[in-house]
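Collaborator request, handled under Task 6.
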Amino acid sequence: LERFQREAEAVARLSHPSVVTIHSVERDEGVHFLTMELVDGENLDRVLERGGLPLPRALEIAGAIADALAAAHQQGIVHRDLKPANVMLTSDERVKVLDFGLAKLAREPADEALGEAAPSMPTEARPLTDEGLVLGTAAYMSPEQANGLPADARSDIFSLGCLLYEASTGTRAFSGGSVIDTLHNVIHKEPEPLADRVPHAPMQLHWILRKALAKKPADRYQSASDLAVDLRTTRQDLESGADLLTVPPHSAPALEQTARPRWRTILGVVAAVLTGVVILAWLFGRRAADPTSATAPALSIQPITSSGLVPSAAISPDGKYVAYVESSEGRQSLHLRQLTSSESLELIPPAAVGYWGMTFTPDSTDIVFGRKYDENPSGALFRISALGGTPRKLVEQIDSSASFSPDGSRFTWLRKDFPTPGASSLMIANADGSGERLLATRSPPEVLAPRYFTAPSWSPDGGLIAASVMSDETRRGEILGFDVETGAVAWTSERSWNWISRVDWLGDGDALLAIASKDDEYRAQIWFVPYPRGAPHQITDDRRHYRLASPTADGDSLVAVAEAPTSLATLWSQASDGTGRPARIPHSSMDGRFGFDFTADGRILFQTIEAGELELAVMNLDGTGRQVLTDNTRAEFYPRVTGKGKILYHTRESMGAELRLI
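Structure tokens returned to the collaborator:
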């Protein structure tokens, strides 16, 4: 009687086309009953016994249920027993939610003037059956219900997520050999990946299910109305025939490793100063049987996009996705793009932060990225699902992106000014950020970090971590292989470079890629570094200045980021009256890019590149009499000649900048 009376009072207050209507509460010869709307149709559980539904229909049904729940929640009513048996599909394909028999008033009806949404006050989870069993069907209960904890409107959202998963796949999200087993899986397990059941399901559906089925209520949709909006949008996108992002099946077989000629694709994001950003593709090959071969590969460029806003990117180990940062008006955002699609998904909206590199986890499901901002200038590494969600902080004090061990259980990164000021260290932590420890340290004049886009790389066999080390004394850099257990140097590259930053192992472990510049050359290129022996050689040789090269697990493709050639600078002269033709002043292609001025005696004062560093120099108008004025480890740029003949210029050390006179 208690349950009956509650159902009558709760449902009678609702008026919604997707909620069954209660006309009256009756009693006849001591029997209490309800007179309800007659629904001509079939229960959803009977429909799902025949298998999953087409995705547009599954989304349509779930959207109607979400609208019904939103109306109930607005009245302070939580269903608490949502399952396919309590949903009917009418003969004219409408949806009706039945049996609010477990409904409980969560609070007073919302103030319509305030437009209040889902209730926040929890209901009492008091069991009403004889043996203390928690009410509701186990496979559709929320984790908090399964634990006998208070359940609010977000519990209904979890149940709807279970129903949507089953409608999409034809399989329950959670099941077991007994009620206890099922409840255990609800609390502790995740459903089988949607892509394994529904290949080519849109990423939006993965994201909706991930958010609706989050174990913690705070991580779910906070209102059924928000869920309804996402369901409608995804259905509309599906029905429009748009090229949607999809997630590949987790069970897809791994690519075979053979001794065939290895063709690799480099997907390059070219960040230009004066032009747009272009993602390029190059095809190149090398003989797998001869890892020491120095044969330069042939390159073929295929432009893919050109946004003009991308400073950093990474490719997933499976080669399916590219994560990238967009930077505009002092704000940066994180995005994901499927390489077979022209559509991108915004994972994190624009904010006044700086991203410090990124990488995918070995299974390609999550992205780990570094981020710094005013309130946390030392930065932190965060982890976010490739489907979106709330980023989770892993570790703080970071000066590079991360690199994972082959089994994904640990990751490594670089940290400056640790353990002492001026020192820089190679760090290791568990995949969840716990167990942080120092593996190796370099002290001045040797530097691991901070350096431009540098990053370490964990070897495919798990035994070494490779990292580049620069010397402020010799102004040369090399690659070192640090033993993962002891931190000792177990391998050193066969050559050094004028400048070197990021290194990445190729998937078979027979070589690394490095971003480096050769002697007397400013432009950093992509280098192929054989392991354990062989002479390094350039893969690229063009006018771009490369920032990073991020390969896939099989080494068949990589994403590269480079400054476009139009961002390079040269000095030209022309008569002040406009006569004659402009003439280039010979020497470095980077002369004057970061500022120039004229001295009192008519010479040119300019910024240039010497031994990989930004320096100041002077020369005559015809390029003769060139003289470098500065010679230290600082970067000097934007020079100006004062009225007293002094030179005022900027110098940058780490993150700061200052003005100096010489």
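The cover message to the collaborator said: "Residues 105-136, 250-266, 268-306, 653-659 have pLDDT under 50 and may be disordered. The CA atoms of residues 23 and 249 lie 48 Å apart. Please let us know whether this matches your experimental observations."
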